[in-house]
Amino acid sequence: MRSPRGWNEAWPVGRYWRAALVVFFNYGVDTGTVWKTLPFHEPIRWRHISWGRQSPDRELKESSPWGWLYYRRVKTGKAFWRPMNRTVRLHLKSLCPDEPDPDAPVFLGGGTRPNIRFRQLCKLAGISPKRDIESGDERLWVLKDLRKTCATYYDEHVPESSVEILGHSAGGITYRHYAHRAPLAFRAILSLPQPSSFKTLARGFEGQCPCCRRKFEEANS
Q: What GO biological process terms are annotated to this protein in UniProt (predicted)?
């Protein structure tokens, strides 16, 4: 992926997009949760990441070996502290500056219209536009489609877990029916099988150790 004109960030734009796709896949977040494209969006910032095992939300009793991620749904405004799995942690670590500004956004490179860049990625990957079953018309992919992908993967992995993970609204009897799914979602996130393209970072990113970013020959010394 080509960097936008005037790009002068420390990392290539593709690294930000790769990490963003990992977050989309694992949490089914809204586009406005990743990139602030409208004034009311609250993007993920560095202060929203906790690298420790214990959740900053004291109501959560579980501990995560890979840390925690905070975000807020655009549509409902509902906030979540979600456990990070190893893949999410490695990709966020790969973006983290030595001294991150707590209020700085984690993800850059989305521009004002992230869906346009997403379609460029789809084209580079050789992914054809989706086709409407009834009309047969082609429709361009949008980042919102990744929420459906996330739900499908989670429900195949741990049935019914997507309701809690995607933050669907539920009230009354429905809420009581879904109340048991928070621990279910915790287990699903930590154990979700990752695409092979997401696993390469665990073996090193661009010849560097993903933890300390030293060259492999230096990291082993």
A: DNA integration; DNA recombination
